[in-house]
């Protein structure tokens, strides 16, 4: 059986999400598991997909990064499917792990992607450190904290916390934090 898995990181990526599903269906995939979730968080549809696969099935993904974000995770998924007798096919790379060559190529691609990600993060850290030295980087401005005087004013006027949050475009927890800090400093 051909089984597909489609994923995007956010709900904003509608076109890419629908394109993955359409591509899988055009290939004759009989069952598609799809979700919009970060690769780093919980992915219940991926778990369901991996549980669903049986001996002789092939899991098809349009791109490897839709399935895995690291070599370790890829190996974990592959080993799990290998024990079940299932294979993985990655369309954009032409990889089919039903062969030893396909598995090797997939592992190399995942390793290169992980290496690139580590380099990017290192360059980002270096850039931020340099910007801090020059006084050009102070981090994100705390949006809600700047609104604390308005929170206190609205509360004194009898506005309830949920309404304050809605009016100011901040979270209820920020409203309660402002009220707690004002009470503690009084």
Automatic annotation (TrEMBL):
PROSITE patterns: RECOMBINASES_3. Residues 1-135 form the Resolvase/invertase-type recombinase catalytic domain. InterPro entries: Resolv_N, Resolvase-like_N_sf, SSR_resolvase. Gene3D superfamilies: Resolvase, N-terminal catalytic domain. GO terms for molecular function: DNA binding; DNA strand exchange activity. Pfam families: HTH_23, Resolvase. It comes from the Bacteria. PANTHER family: DNA-INVERTASE FROM LAMBDOID PROPHAGE, RESOLVASE HOMOLOG YNEB. Belongs to the site-specific recombinase resolvase family. This is Recombinase family protein. The lineage of its organism: Bacteria, Pseudomonadati, Pseudomonadota, Alphaproteobacteria, Rhodospirillales.
């Amino acid at each position: 059986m051909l089984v597909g898995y489609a994923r995007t990181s956010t709900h904003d990526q509608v076109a890419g999400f629908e394109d993955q599903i359409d591509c899988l269906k055009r290939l004759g995939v009989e069952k598609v598991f799809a979700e919009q979730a970060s690769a780093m968080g919980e992915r219940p549809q991926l778990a369901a997909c991996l549980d669903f696969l049986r001996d002789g099935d092939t899991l098809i993904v349009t791109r490897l990064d839709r399935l895995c974000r690291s070599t370790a995770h890829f190996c974990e998924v592959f080993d799990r499917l290998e024990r079940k007798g299932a294979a993985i096919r990655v369309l954009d790379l032409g990889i089919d792990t039903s062969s030893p060559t396909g598995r090797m190529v997939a592992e190399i691609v995942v390793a290169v992607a992980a290496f690139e990600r580590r380099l990017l993060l290192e360059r980002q850290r270096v850039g931020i450190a340099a910007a801090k030295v020059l006084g050009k980087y102070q981090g994100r401005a705390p949006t809600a904290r700047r609104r604390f005087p308005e929170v206190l004013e609205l509360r004194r006027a009898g506005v309830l916390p949920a309404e304050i949050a809605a009016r100011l475009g901040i979270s209820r927890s920020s409203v309660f934090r402002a009220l707690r800090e004002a009470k503690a400093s009084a």
